[in-house]
Amino acid sequence: MTGTLVLAGTPIGDLQDAPPRLAEELAGADVVAAEDTRRLRRLTQALGVQPAGRVVSYFEGNESARTPELVEELAGGARVLLVTDAGMPSVSDPGYRLVAAAVERGVRVTAVPGPSAVLTALALSGLPVDRFCFEGFLPRKAGERLSRLREVAGERRTLVYFEAPHRLDDTLAAMAEAFGADRRAAVCRELTKTYEEVRRGGLGELAAWAAKGVRGEITVVVEGAPERGAEEVGPEELVRRVRVREEAGERRKEAIAAVAAEAGLPKREVFDAVVAAKHAQ
């Protein structure tokens, strides 16, 4: 008999949000793999529980090396509980490698549902929640970040991002450039904590606010692109937008892809407009 891997959601701020099953799993697991053992200790003290099993660290730095060890424990029948600092393991946190390896070995994987910064921010944002996509953390380098944002400029679903406070102003400024300064968004800070704040407004307005300095755990929710039809953006305008991007230093292929995403059109349609304009010269 193989064991069971349990992914446990932990509070994103207020420790009272911990689900009752979390205490039971912490007390009964053979192995508790924690992203930060010190934070785990604070959590167990708040819950009034003492792990009976072995506690090991499992974080980005040792995830690759420790995964095989934990899989062997699981294959031998152990119940392994995986917890990260906040929220659900594997969602922008360690866990994916272990889940994939456990599934490959035929190990049962289950979860203790818990608080989620993604869903909490989405619900508080005031933006549409019927369809959304989670984009996680953006690249740190400015060029890569802007390129990634331009890829989803035409995405009509609400977008959810995580960001570090010291990069928030640059990220919001890049979003304003890629999506438009008036695109609605919400910056959700310190969710469920004492100084919780949800700041709503246009991306340009939020970028100016963030330039003054922001602290805490940040989740950004951005409104999806408005519905646009091909009739609203004619070939001449498409060519003009591509030319503007090329003059700013983008390669033509990237510029066409970005303009197509903004207009909600197939890349081929923008490409054809550019080629037709060139032949007409």
UniProtKB/TrEMBL annotation:
EC numbers: 2.1.1.198
Keyword Nucleotidyltransferase on entry: no
Enzyme class of the recorded protein, top EC level: transferase
Primary residence: cytoplasm
CDD domains: RsmI
A single BP term in Gene Ontology: methylation
Catalytic activity: cytidine(1402) in 16S rRNA + S-adenosyl-L-methionine = 2'-O-methylcytidine(1402) in 16S rRNA + S-adenosyl-L-homocysteine + H(+)
Subcellular location: Cytoplasm
Keywords: Cytoplasm, Methyltransferase, rRNA processing, S-adenosyl-L-methionine, Transferase
GO MF terms, alphabetically ordered: methyltransferase activity
SUPFAM superfamilies linked: Tetrapyrrole methylase
Domain Tetrapyrrole methylase stretches: 4-207
One Pfam family matching this protein: TP_methylase
Family, similarity comment: Belongs to the methyltransferase superfamily. RsmI family.
Biological role: Catalyzes the 2'-O-methylation of the ribose of cytidine 1402 (C1402) in 16S rRNA.
NCBIfam families noted in UniProt: 16S rRNA (cytidine(1402)-2'-O)-methyltransferase
Name of the protein described by the UniProt record: Ribosomal RNA small subunit methyltransferase I
Organism expressing this protein natively: Streptomyces tropicalis
Protein's gene: rsmI
